[in-house]
Amino acid sequence: MTVALELVHVTKRFDATEILRGVDLSIPQGERHALIGPNGAGKSTLFDLISGRVKATSGVIRVNEIDVTGMPSHRLSRAGLARSFQSTRLFAGLTVFDNIRCAVLGSRKASFRDRWVRSASIDREVEGVLDSMGLSARRDELAASLSYAEQRALDLGIALSTGADVLLLDEPTAGMNRAEAERALGLIHETTQGKTLLIVEHDMQAVFALADRISVLVRGRVIATGSAAEIKANALVRAAYLGDVP
Q: What is the mean pLDDT of each run of 10 residues along the chain (246 residues)?
């Protein structure tokens, strides 16, 4: 079994405050893995560590069996990891097409001349991403003009356009109504086949529908990992997260 994302006793301390207290996590290639936990559990901090926005105090982080501990975000992208954010990070003043094209170009190691020569093939790749995201009809619109759900779809398209095979999705259905959330989940399921996903999500219906396995983070520690059925039946999880006293 190839491990796509691995954390070994990862800790994070801000001054005297310990946010993560020895997180161990192993996600095999191609698995959809959800990370859940109450507010303040350390989920956002963990995502920031994995994606290179902040550095771990101690521990090891591996992507595709390569030690990426402390690696900055731009290098992580080349190592095969991409992240979408809870609040979209789009170029609001660029068109939908150009947002995706920037992501495709940013993932290439080719020279400027090679990019110019391959411009037509790059444009075809962009069109393919837009089609898969259901955004072809909005290709020439400014990203700022999209609805919230469309902006989240574009954000996912940008992450996919990097060519990364490990994706971090930060609350992909946040702010959506039930119908929008269901469409977003279907889009994620369809467009990320074969990819490894780590998802932070508060919507338990979305988590149980999408994830192969779930890890529960409480007070900076993973207290349980398992299938949806196993997590639902876990007394510690019910007490700490779902609010049910065992």
A: 94 95 97 93 93 94 93 84 77 92 72 58 89 92 92 88 90 85 87 92 86 94 94 87 49
Separation of first and last alpha carbons in the chain: 35
Taking the mean position of all CA atoms in its chain, how far away is CA 87?
12
Count helices and strands (H / E) in the chain: 10, 10
b/e code 65-100 from CB counts within 10 Å (16+ = b): eeebbebeeeebbeebbbbbbbebebbeeebbbbbb
CB atoms within 10 A of CB 45: 21
Give the Cα separation of 204 and 184 in Å (integer). 15
- The C-alpha angle with vertex 14 and arms to 12 and 19, in degrees rounded to 5, equals 45
By residue count, the chain amounts to 246
Distance CA 87, CA 198 (A): 17
Could you give the number of structural domains in the chain? Answer: 1
Read off the CATH number of the domain in which 30 is found. 3.40.50.300
Phi, psi of 67 (to 5 degrees): -70, 115
Rounded to two decimals, what is the model's pTM? 0.85
- Domain residues for the domain of 148 are 3-242
Cα–Cα distance measured from residue 189 to residue 195, given in angstroms and rounded to the nearest whole number? 10
